[in-house]
Amino acid sequence: SNLASNIKNVSVIYSRANDKIPDLNLIIDTEKQLDVLINNAGLGTDLRKTTKQGYEIIFGVNFTGPFLLTYLLLDLLKKSAPSRIINVSSLAHASVRESIISFQPNDSSSSTGVKYPKLANYHLSKLAQIWHTNVLAEKLSADNVTANSMNPGYVYSGIWYADSNPMKQILLRFSGWLSSKIGRTSKNAALTVVYMAVDPSLEKVSGCYFENVEISKNMSACAKNKTLAQKMWDVSMDMCELSKKFE
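C-alpha cells predicted for Retinol dehydrogenase 11-like (247 residues):
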C-alpha cells in the first residue's frame, strides 16, 4: 500500500491521561495497526513559560507530551508487533551534566509557578527522550516492540526564533541564519529516521542511538545511566497522572 497514505500526525502539546485528545482518541478507536511511532517534537524557545499543567513549556512539549502519547499507544503497538518506537533527540543531550539534574518538585510556597523547575530547557528534554527510549527498550523486550533514539544533526528548522529577551533573540536569529547556511535540510535530516522506521535489518535492534544512518556511539554517559532513566520514568508517570503500573 502507499506509505504516505498510512502516516498519521498527532499533536499532543502535553495533556494529562484523563484529558480529551481528539486525534489520539480517533487513532485508538479506528486504527487496527500501528507499525511505527515517531516522536518528533522540537520546541527550542517559546514566549510562554509553562504548559497549562504548570510544567516548563519546552520540556512539556519536547518530552512530557510524547511520553504520554507513547504510553497511551503502547497497547496498540504491542498488538501490532513487530513495531517500532523512534524518539528524535539531539546531540545537545550530551551537554547536560549529571550534577545539575534534579527531579524535585517545586515548593508550594514558591512564586515561580513551575512544578518541576529543574526539568526545563531543550537540552534536558532531549536527554529525557533518550532515557525514555532506553527504559522502553527494556520494558518492551518481550513484546517484539523496539525503541531507539536518534540525533538528526544541525538542521535548518526555524525552532529558535521566539524569546522575550531582545539580546537573546538576536543571538537566536543569528543561530537560525547560520543553520540556513551550514545546517542540514529537513529532508536530509529525515534520512536516518526513515532508515530506522523501515529497514528490515533493524527489526530486532532496540535501545540504540542513531546518527547519519547508522548506530552511533555518541550517546552520553549520563544518557546511559539506568538509575536516572528509571527516575525520569517514575516522575513522568506522576506528571502525566498515570497511576497504572507498566506490565
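The beta strands are 36-39, 83-88, 145-150, 209-211, 214-215.
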